[in-house]
TrEMBL record, chains A, B:
Gene3D superfamilies: Cobalt-precorrin-4 Transmethylase, Domain 1, Methyltransferase, Cobalt-precorrin-4 Transmethylase, Domain 2. This is diphthine methyl ester synthase. It catalyses: 2-[(3S)-amino-3-carboxypropyl]-L-histidyl-[translation elongation factor 2] + 4 S-adenosyl-L-methionine = diphthine methyl ester-[translation elongation factor 2] + 4 S-adenosyl-L-homocysteine + 3 H(+). Pfam families: TP_methylase. One of its GO terms (biological process) is methylation. Transmembrane segments: none annotated. Residues 8-248 form the Tetrapyrrole methylase domain.
């Protein structure tokens, strides 16, 4: 009879700032793991996922890190789980593993393959936004603002924001990031080619929000609605700015052209913080 | 002219589990601080705020920790801030500093007194509940379930749960804890005497929820409504149980009599996770 030693898959939140936002518990786990993957699909580290950024982490952890891009997470996750059946494996995630983007699929799949999972929590955008002073328990449903294209301008967020505001609740608006998206051309030809990474600025988000307001005309919000804009939340150089939609466009725009911003969220609420 | 050196107040989230859930950044800050306070008013550490629990922390930090109870946080916070004008001071908070209970007042007060503040984020109940599989962005407004007394049975949470459920959203129900509450007698006599600490069990919460449903009769939920119960979320011995309200009462009750539970939350949703 074959003896299978079931080891552990550690899913570890890295928090929001830099390499020192990992918890002691998370670092303990990484140090005992034979293989360490870092998830680079749903968000980018503000300290960069360039070779430089990774080597900072590798130096801290004392071992190499494998970049798990969208393709690997979606298509080859079973390989990672198979490895976790024979040795301890760490899967690092920016923020909390179950924050804005959950890794529930990974956990369910692990259970199916009888791989034990341990989660090390950390801060995520979903709770760190509390820093602006608006109470977390006064938020309604969270919405995502996707990049509009010429032919695809989905606006289901509008109704949700309207509803939240009618109830006196804030809305967390998560702004789109596009990382390692296959180009339309490559999809047609079946060859892998990727668009350059893009992060939605608060400026773009507000433009889109106002366009949708104009289309629906239900006065869910307007240029004078107070919002709070977040950029690089949790990093040393984070920016949190409160003002009307009109003001936010002017104030933040310039700074968001910095090369390393990773998260931009606009938390609209009735009250200014 | 008097020279005032403005030092820093660090507000540091400890996360949800034990002493090793602090981040490296948080520990760096604690180590450079001259004074270290720990906030013991809004929640208790699952690793205990007994002398034993504190000494575990003190050993890790290499310095003494001052317990900031409700009285100190509410009445003597200016003294802490004055100290932070002349030296680095750490204020430790279970979870994230701006999680379920925010420390916004402290930050505003610090700004007024021209004390610089740095926040070190960590996991809080508000994002760690994502571990049960229900998506965080599908939650509506959060509610609190307070301990009912003979004369005080507030039920404003009912309408909010009803609304969330009508919208197909989950509801995070935060269950009451009572720590260092002055007794009624002591309030009358002006002498400080405190009630023993109490934590609401999921059982009690469900009893109260069903009582309120019976009173209002609007079928917001019933005994067959699926819920997820959390106890000691983020700790080594955390419990997460899904089932109907009726089932949750039976399953979890026994375990919640353990001495060190610190957090119990019941996350009601339309779907079972």
């Amino acid at each position: 009879m074959e003896l299978i030693i079931y080891e552990m898959l550690y899913i570890i939140g890295l928090g929001l700032g830099d390499e020192r936002d990992i918890t002691l518990k998370g670092l303990d786990a990484v140090k005992k793991c034979e293989k360490v993957y870092i998830e680079a699909y749903t968000s980018l580290l503000s300290f960069g996922l360039s070779t430089d950024g990774l080597s900072t982490l590798e130096k801290l952890y004392g071992k190499p890190i494998i970049l798990a891009d969208r393709e690997m997470v979606e298509e080859k996750v079973d390989n990672i789980l198979l490895e976790a059946r024979g040795s301890d494996v760490a899967f690092l995630v920016v923020g909390d593993p179950f924050g804005a983007t959950t890794h529930t699929d990974l956990v369910v799949r692990a259970k199916t393959m009888m791989v034990d999972v341990k989660v090390v929590h950390n801060a995520s955008v979903m709770n760190a936004i509390g820093i602006c002073g608006l109470q977390l328990y006064r938020y309604g449903e969270t919405v995502s603002i996707p990049f509009f294209t010429e032919t695809w301008r989905p606006d289901s967020f509008y109704e949700k924001i309207e509803r939240n505001r009618n109830l006196g609740l804030h809305t967390l608006c998560l702004l789109d990031i596009r990382v390692k998206e296959p180009t339309l051309e490559s999809l047609c030809r079946g060859r892998k080619q990727y668009e350059p990474p893009r992060f939605m600025t608060i400026n773009t988000a507000i433009d889109q929000l106002l366009e949708v307001e104009q289309k629906h005309g239900k006065s869910a919000y307007d240029e004078d609605t107070n919002c709070v804009g977040f950029a690089r939340l949790g990093s040393e150089d984070q920016m949190i700015v409160a003002g009307t939609m009109r003001q936010l466009c002017t104030v933040i725009l310039g700074n968001l052209t910095l090369p390393c911003h990773s998260r931009q969220d606009s938390s609209g609420g009735r009250r200014k913080c």
